[in-house]
Amino acid sequence: MTLEDKDMTSQVLADVNAMGKAARGAAAVLSVADTGQKNLALLAMADAIDAAASILLAANAKDLAAARVKGIDAALLDRLELTPARISGMSEGLRSVAAQADPIGALSATDRRPSGLEIARMRVPLGVIGVIYESRPNVTADAAGLCIKSGNVVILRGGSEAFNSNQAVAECVRQGLQKAGLPEAAVQLVATTDRAAVGALLAMDEYLDVIIPRGGKGLVKRISEEARVPVIKHLDGICHVFIDAGADLARAVEVALNAKTYRYGICGSMETLLLHGDEAERVLPMLVDAFAAKEVELRGCERTLALVPGMVAATEADWDTEYLGPILSIRVVDDMDAAMQHIARHGSAHTDAIVTNDIGRARRFVRQVDSASVMVNAATCFADGAEYGLGAEIGISTNRMHVRGPVGVLGLTTEKYVVNGDYTTRG
Amino acid sequence: MTLEDKDMTSQVLADVNAMGKAARGAAAVLSVADTGQKNLALLAMADAIDAAASILLAANAKDLAAARVKGIDAALLDRLELTPARISGMSEGLRSVAAQADPIGALSATDRRPSGLEIARMRVPLGVIGVIYESRPNVTADAAGLCIKSGNVVILRGGSEAFNSNQAVAECVRQGLQKAGLPEAAVQLVATTDRAAVGALLAMDEYLDVIIPRGGKGLVKRISEEARVPVIKHLDGICHVFIDAGADLARAVEVALNAKTYRYGICGSMETLLLHGDEAERVLPMLVDAFAAKEVELRGCERTLALVPGMVAATEADWDTEYLGPILSIRVVDDMDAAMQHIARHGSAHTDAIVTNDIGRARRFVRQVDSASVMVNAATCFADGAEYGLGAEIGISTNRMHVRGPVGVLGLTTEKYVVNGDYTTRG
C-alpha cells in the first residue's frame, strides 16, 4: 500500500465515521417522528422516483455500460438493470410500505404487579441500521422506505457496479426526506466504491445497531465473520417439498413444479422433493413429464431410480446443495417422520412444505419442522415479504434470534419496558 | 504448554463438543414437549432441591472453605454462599416459572393474503442456549427452569469457585428431568474447571444458538468479543432518576433513596440523580439529610455545590461511572429536555426514571428516553425479572436486538412463519 493509498483509506474511515455520528443524531429524531410525517416522506420519495424515471434510466445506462466493458455476466447485468417497470416497482414498494401500520409506540397489554407497578412493553426502532448490498439498485429505495417507516436511520453501501444508479435513487430519497422535514442524515449512501468503507461499517459498533447484508453467500459470510455489530443474515435456502400419502397427486405436482420453476434464482425455490413411498410409483411419472417440459434436470435416490430407470443418480452432496438453477433432487422416504428427519439433517431451516390432505400430519409437520417458514399445501417460492403482506422486505433472515424469515417493518423494531407507579418504592 | 496440558485441553474440547451434539439432539425433543411435561420437570426439580437442602449446604460449605483459603473477597463469598433461604429461593423460583404461561406453539393472528394463503407466526424456542456464569449457584436452577419452560436446551458453565455447589444443584435438576421423562441432555453442566471449556463454548456455533453471560464486566466483555455465537449481553447499568418540577418532593426523595439504597450492587441501582432547577433549592436539603442517614457519599455539579457548600464536587468521569456502591452523583438541570440529554449522553440505556405529576411530560419522557426500562414514579431498582412478573430472569439484556431488559421465558423464544394454502401456487 502506498502512502497515498493509506491517506485515501484513512479519509474513507473518517467519512464513514462522520456518517455514523450524523446517523446517531438523526436516530433521536426518527425514533419519535409522527406516522404522518414518515408516510409523507415515503410518498414524496415515491413521487420523486416516478418523476426522475428518465434520470434514473440514464444513470443506470452508465452503470450497465461500465459493467459490459468489464465483461460482467448476464445474471448480474439482469440484477443491475433498471427498466420503467422496475422503477415503478420501487415507487409502488414505497407506497405499499407507507400503507402499512406504524408499529412504533404501540404498547402491549399492561400487567399490574403486586407492587402496584403497571408494566407494559412499547415498540421502538432498533436505531441505526447498516445495509450492505450488491448489484440491485432497488434495494436503495426498499431499505430506505422500510427503515424510515420503522423509525430507524440507515446507512447504505451499495455495490460499486451500481454506483450511479444508487446515487440517483438516493437523490430521490433525499428529496422525500426534505419534503417531510426529516433530517437528510436519516438515509445516507456511502459515496465511495473503496472497499475499506465496508470494513469501517463492520467495525462501527458505536454508531451502528445492526448490519443487514444483501447479496451472495460470499458477501454474507465475510460480513458475518468480520462484523463487530449484530448481523441479520441470510445464508442458504435449501428448501424442501414433501408429498404425503393421500395427497391430490395432480395438484401436488403443480405445487412442486411451481416451487421449483417460479424462479430458479430465489432462495425460496425448492431444491429437494421428498416423496412418500406409497405414492412414489404413481407420482414419479407425472413429475418426470412435468419437469421435462420445463427442462429441469432430475437427480434421484436409489428408490427413485428403481422406478425411473435412466434418471441421473443423486449423490450425498446433492442433498446439501442449493442449486439456484434448473436441477432438482428427488428422494423417496418411508413416511413423514423420515421426511422430517431428512429436512432436519439436510435443510437450512429456511422454508419447507408438506403437501397433504391429512390434518393431523399437517399439524405435526408445522409444529416439528424447525424452519423460518413452514408451509402446508403451498409452494415454497411464496417465502417473500410482499407475499407475506410486509409491503416489502429488507431481507430474509436465517438467524434464530430476533427475527426469522422475511423481514419487514416489524422485524426492524424491538420493545422496551414501560413501568408506571405512584411514587412506588421496593420493599 | 506441556504435551500433557495439550492432551487435557483437547480432551476438554472433545467433551464440550460431545455435550453440544447431545444438546442438539435433545433440542428436537424439548421443542415439542408438552406444557404439562415441562412443568412436571420443573416442579420435580423444585422438590428435589428442597429434599436435598442438607446435601446442597454441605457441597456449598466445601466451596466456601476453598474460597476462604484462596482469600476471596467478602462480596464474592456472599454471592457464593447458599443458605436455607436461598435454597428455598431456588425451588420457589422453579415453581414460579412452572406457573408461568407456556408461550411455545402459540400462533399470532392469521392474515389472509390475496393469494389465498393464510399466514401466521408461531412462537418457538431459540434452540440450544449456553449460560456462562460466575459465583452464584442459584443461576444453575434459574437457568435450567427458564430454558426448559421455554422449550430450550441449555449447557451451563458455572464458576470454578462454585464447582461443588453447581454439581449438587445440577443433580437435582437431573432428577427432575428424569421424573418427567425428558432427556437428561436437556440440561448439561460442564464438569470441569478448565478455562478452555469457555473458549470451546464460544466457538461452538454449530451446536449453540445463543450465549448468555452472567457476571462482571470483564466476563461479559471477553465473551462478547470472542463469541462466534450470538450473545444476549448485559453491560453497564448507569441508571438515572429525574425529579421534575412540581413533583411531590417528600415522596420523590423516598423514591430516590430507594433507587440508590435498596441494594447498592444491583444493576438497576440509581447512579445519578437529576434535579429540575426549580426544585433544587427545596429538595437538596431533604436529599442531603436522607442520604446522610444511609451514609451515601454525594457528589454534586456546580449548581448543586452552590446550594450545598462543602459537598464533594463531581467530575466529568462521575457522570459515566457505575458505582455499584454507596456513592451518588447529583446534577441540577434546566428542565426535562436537559435531563433527557444528560441521560442520552451519559446513560447506558438500562433503566431510567422520571418523578413527576405532569402527565404530558411523563408521556414524552417515556416515548423519548431510549432505555430498556423507562419508569414513571417508580424506583429504578425495580428493574428485575421477578418484579416484572417473569417468574425469574436469566439476565437483563442491554442488547437492542431480540430482547431488551429483564429476560424471562418469552425472551428465550422466537417466531417462525406458518403458511397454509390449498395447493396454492404463485402466479
General description of the model:
The structure is a homodimer of 427-residue chains. Chain A is built from 14 helices and 16 strands. Chain A is of the alpha/beta class and 427 residues long. Chain A folds into 2 domains: 246 residues, Aldehyde Dehydrogenase, Chain A, domain 1 (3-Layer(aba) Sandwich); 149 residues, 3-Layer(aba) Sandwich (Aldehyde Dehydrogenase, Chain A, domain 2), CATH 3.40.309.10. A 7-stranded parallel beta sheet of chain A has the order 10-9-11-8-7-12-13, sandwiched between helices. Chain A has a 4-stranded parallel beta sheet with strand order 5-4-3-6, sandwiched between helices. In chain A, helix 12 links the parallel strand 9 and strand 10. In chain A, helix 2 packs antiparallel against helix 5 and helix 3 packs antiparallel against helix 7. The mean pLDDT of chain A is 95. Chains A and B meet through strand 2, helix 10, helix 14, strand 13 and strand 16 of A and strand 2, helix 10, helix 15, strand 13 and strand 16 of B. Chains A, B: One of its GO terms (cellular component) is cytoplasm. Chains A, B: It is found in: Cytoplasm. Chains A, B: InterPro entries: Ald_DH/histidinol_DH, Ald_DH_C, Ald_DH_N, Aldehyde_DH_dom, G-glutamylP_reductase_CS, Glu-5-SA_DH, GPR_dom.
